[in-house]
Amino acid sequence: MTGPSRYQAMYRRSLDDPDGFWGDAARAIDWIRPPDRILDDRRAPFTRWFTGGRLNTCANALDRHVEAGFGDRLALIYDSPLTGSLRRFSYDELLSEVARFAGALRGLGVERGDRVLIYMPMVPEAVVGMLACARLGAIHSVVFGGFASRELATRIDDATPKVVLTASCGIEPNRIVEYQPLLEGALEIAAHAPEHCVVLQREEHPVEIEDGPFHDWKTLAAVAPAVDPVAVDAHDPLYILYTSGTTGKPKGVVRDNGGHAVALRWSLEYVYGMQPGDVFWAASDIGWVVGHSYIVYAPLLHGCTTILYEGKPVGTPDAGAFWRVISDHGVKAFFTAPTALRAIKREDPEALETRHYDLSSLETLFLAGERADPDTVAWAERALSVPVIDHWWQTESGWPMVANCRGIEALPVKHGSPSVPVPGFDIAVLDDEGQRIAPGEAADSIGHVAVALPLPPGCLPTLWNDEEGYRQAYLDRFPGYYQTSDAGAIDADGYVWIMSRTDDIINVAGHRLSTGSMEEVLSSHADVAEAAVIGVRDALKGQLPLGFVVCKVGSELSPEALEAELVALVRERIGPVAAMKEVLTVAALPKTRSGKILRGVMRKIADGEAYEVPATIEDGSVLDAITSVLTARSA
Ligand code: COA
Ligand code: AMP
Question: Measured from the CB, is residue 145 less than 6 Å from ligand 2?
Fold first, then answer.
């Protein structure tokens, strides 16, 4: 008789003995004061981990590797085809940069618990800024560069940062992103006024640094003293990362120091199968959770080399860009979004570019951020001849919830499923009443994907300044569970299948966006009476937003002029990342008799899927008219 597999044994222990399991994992972190409690559920459902522990995340990411004699090891490689630059930082060098920049921040008055907002492109200084905050016990909040002033202002008002870190520009293949006017626009809208703004001058587009709250990054850093790490409580926030919610107001996901350090280091070893010294590359952006967790924190906490890539999968300069980076830097594990592979596949269907590079260092390709469609997975397997591992997680979890944990045991891969629950996550599929649906045929047992409480370390303990919002968004719907807002199933082998969102979030090129916030922008136009936004299927980006508006009576704009104004308005208010390129003017929106817009039915019509007309529809002819508009559009 055989015993449980290594995965099954670890998984069971993580749920049956969380104190033992995470207590052991915590030994791989340096504590200034060890925790008194591992799992602390005294305020359940508000779980806390490692109560009483004191540590510093930056010291764990940098100092301790230097102290252990690995100062010469490469910590960070900055590879930027967009600027033609390559810079390498050893652990010694990165520590010295971070310690001095922490000194600069302290000189501006930043102390433990203060917030620092980071609105920067993919440059090493952005990573330095994040780690410098961690060193001081300050809380960073990185805002993705593709968001516009209004989104930035919302985050400034919610996080109330003392300091903002920015750069003179970001670089997109088709244009320069001018951060200064975007930031100034945000500061005009925001009620909160940060005391200081530190600007990194980039030679590609230097700017005039005005007096007042603006400072030059390099001048400040040049004269700043190096500072030591500050001890913080395990529960102290390390960062706030805003993510799309169902309303226009983004949610400030909080990450604590202790649970995050333990879980993220553990994940690099056991989920990703990495050893200290290995080269790990996540081709994401520091503005997203993947960037926080797997460009910055996890690789450094585990003593690996991480790559910061300022480029695209295609066009910088060609569809071989990813393979060039893997080969140049000896990448062992590579993490990207399926949409990036689809972009490469579109330009190089036979993956001929792979032949120009030595990819022998690559052992595994990890995919996340959106559903990994089986065609793309199969293409990548053929192109790279390595296991292609889909894994599922969210900004809120901070690290994978379902994966094929390569550092524990390589389980069989099923295309279309991210595999099995990661230790620590008791994944359940619930019906509308909150009862667990028994595992079965994936297609027959779809429900709400939830995680039985307590969530393991590293997951969000709350929302910034909004414990009630946290409870409402995640805990109230299914008592005893964290609601993920994804729909899916668990099959008879225990494999989890993630199908779609159950809310109005859409996933565009691996970016999580709220259709609710786009509807708010459309509705704010003086000529719009009503608006609806749905996500429609797109071969490259997975989904694209499509807007519908009903004009106010008496509007003098032609439909074409209004549609163009609305596309521009979404770009101006939310930012280019919203990728809203199409708005259609219609006579009316299809609704139920109680006034609910039939967005789900509209999406199915747009995607050419079968749909049922609800018995409660108010006026069937409105739906017929929308169907004609959508049919004309797809023709
Ligand atoms: N700053 C400013 N603007 C940005 C930006 C940034 N950091 N990132 C993207 N944008 C802009 C783009 O320039 C584009 O603007 P445009 O309308 O003027 O062309 C717009 O936002 C939409 O960007 P995106 O949806 O990313 O489309 P794209 O055509 O530029 O690139 C892909 C398509 C597939 C190549 C790209 O989306 C990609 O690599 N995605 C992977 C996503 C990812 O890594 N997600 C993280 C989870 S792993
Ligand atoms: P984000 O918070 O931006 O990371 O987006 C999280 C959402 O992206 C999840 O709730 C899912 O809807 C989707 N997602 C992420 N990874 C996967 C995956 N591997 N398979 C299916 N959906 C995914």
Answer: no
Using one digit for the tens of pLDDT, what is the confidence trace for 466-491? 999 999 999 999 999 999 999 999 99
Phi first, then psi: give them for residue 198, nearest 5 degrees. Answer: -105, 125
Would you say the CB of residue 7 lies under 6 angstroms from ligand 1? no
- DSSP-assigned states of every residue in 130-159: HHHHHHHT-EEEE--TTS-HHHHHHHHHHH
Distance 148 CA to ligand 2 centre (A): 23
Domains of the chain: 5-311+391-489 (3.40.50.12780), 509-634 (3.30.300.30)
The band of 1, judged by pLDDT with boundaries at 50, 70 and 90, is very low
Closest C-alpha to ligand 2, atom 7:
394
Rounded CA-CA distance 451/430 in Å is 10
- The answer to whether residue 135 scores a pLDDT higher than 50 is yes
pLDDT category, 442, cuts 50, 70, 90?
Answer: low
Separation CA 47–CA 459 (nearest Å) = 10
- What is the dihedral sign for C-alpha 356, 358, 363, 369? negative
* Cα distance between residue 498 and residue 487, in whole Å: 6
Residue, of 525 and 635, whose pLDDT is higher:
525
Strand order of the β-sheet with 139-142 is 214-216, 196-200, 163-167, 115-119, 139-142, 237-243, 251-256
Take atom 47 of ligand 1 and give the residue whose Cα is closest: 369
- Average pLDDT of the chain to the nearest whole number: 96
Is the pTM higher than 0.85? yes
